[in-house]
Design goal:
The chain is about 50% helix and about 5% strand. The protein is of the alpha+beta class. The model is unreliable at about 1-5 and about 10-105 (pLDDT under 50).
């Protein structure tokens, strides 16, 4: 049954791939025209500003004081009902951006670098869905905390101490599938995301994962999760855009100048897991090295001399794709693309690049809503 479900979904992947434009790192100028019309004509059936409670005007009453007294009691009771109803609606409206906590028997352990954009993506997903998890901060120099793993990158998510999930996008897709389709185990779902050996642009062997942006659910669940005609396609497109373009803008921007590089490494050392001597060398030598590397990354990804302009354009493209009338890409609630973009941008908080991005782009309102939606209960 699981194999059949995978086969049906993979068929849809193939069909979608044929009519979904590819997001390429080196051709971002072509993205903007497509995304500018993304939200035209889209409607969301979740209430909101159009939902109102009207109370009819009182009509003349005949039949003396007893009837009038009954009418008074009935009117007062109806008024009280309306007051309570409106109060509840306001309370629900305040909570609408927070996903309902989903009961789960999963024991989750996240191996991470706190300042890694990919790890931040996973935390954003877990926090939004109210999933409890433990964090193991990995020393980025020795990586002793993951010496047991043949996969040597983070994030790694261990499920119930036995099932290992690698790659941030695979982790998110697997967990989202599990939360919707509880009849499948994590191991069964993971089989739909096969590991594949590949080579990167430099000819180096790497591990990739098939279907990693797909949530593997039945048609009925997919219709509920993606009510709009192009909702699924848009979510996948922007999740890929986050991994293939947005994340590559972070290092050139946070290490743009020697001063910014030093401030960034001060933050990395403070938030990460370093020994005393490791922290000292990482802060000063690491900052110098990354300032140089950032310049190479700028050339590799064909960025402008002023890399801030690429960051501003990318962020404004994202905001334009959401649309003026939507709170999130997912409508009234964040979808997986919202969580991915937020997770990547969040690692720049407290740095000059973040402050200037908030000042010179239109992202602030969306970003503040995402902060509220992903806030963990203490």
């Amino acid at each position: 049954m699981m194999a059949a479900a995978c086969a049906r979904t993979l068929g849809k992947v193939a069909r979608l791939a044929l009519d979904t434009p590819t997001c390429r790192v080196t051709n971002t100028a072509a993205i903007a025209p497509r995304i500018s019309t993304r939200c035209q004509g889209r409607a969301y059936g979740t209430g909101g500003a159009g939902s109102r409670c009207g109370t009819p005007l009182a009509a003349p009453v005949r039949g003396g004081g007893r009837v009038l007294g009954c009418a008074f009691l009935l009117g007062g009771g109806f008024g009280l009902y309306q007051t309570v109803k409106l109060t509840l609606q306001r309370h629900l409206a305040e909570e609408e951006t927070k996903a309902p906590e989903l009961g789960t028997d999963l024991k989750l352990t996240l191996y991470q670098y706190k300042t890694c954009p990919f790890c931040s993506k996973v935390r954003a997903f877990l926090d939004y869905h109210g999933l409890p998890y433990e964090i193991v901060e990995v020393n980025p120099v020795m990586r002793q905390e993951i010496k047991w793993s043949t996969y040597r990158k983070v994030p790694i998510l261990m499920v119930n101490g036995t099932v290992q999930l690698n790659d941030s996008s695979v982790i998110i897709s697997v967990l989202k599938t599990y939360l919707i389709s509880r009849e499948k185990t994590i191991s069964e779902i993971l089989s739909c995301y096969p590991e594949m050996k590949a080579k990167n642009d430099s000819g180096k062997d790497i591990i990739e994962f098939g279907n990693k942006y797909w949530v593997m659910v039945r048609d009925a669940d997919a219709d509920r999760l993606y009510p709009g005609k192009d909702d699924r396609k848009e979510e996948i497109k922007w999740r890929k855009w986050t991994d293939e373009w947005l994340v590559h803008l972070i290092s050139p921007n946070v290490y743009r100048t020697p001063t910014e590089a030093l401030a960034s490494f001060d933050y990395i050392v403070r938030e990460g897991k370093f020994g005393t001597f490791e922290g000292f060398f990482a802060k000063y030598f690491g900052a110098a090295a990354m300032w140089i590397i950032a310049k190479r990354l700028k050339n590799r990804h064909h960025l402008q001399d002023d890399v801030r302009q690429d960051l501003y354009k990318a962020v404004n493209d994202w905001v334009a794709a959401i649309g003026k009338n939507n709170k999130f890409m997912g409508g009234d609630q964040p979808n997986l693309a919202d969580l991915a973009v937020f997770g990547v941008l969040r690692v720049t908080e407290g740095l000059q690049a973040f402050d200037e991005m908030m000042e010179h782009t239109k992202v602030k309102k969306w970003y503040r809503r995402m902060q509220k939606a992903t806030q963990r209960e203490s």
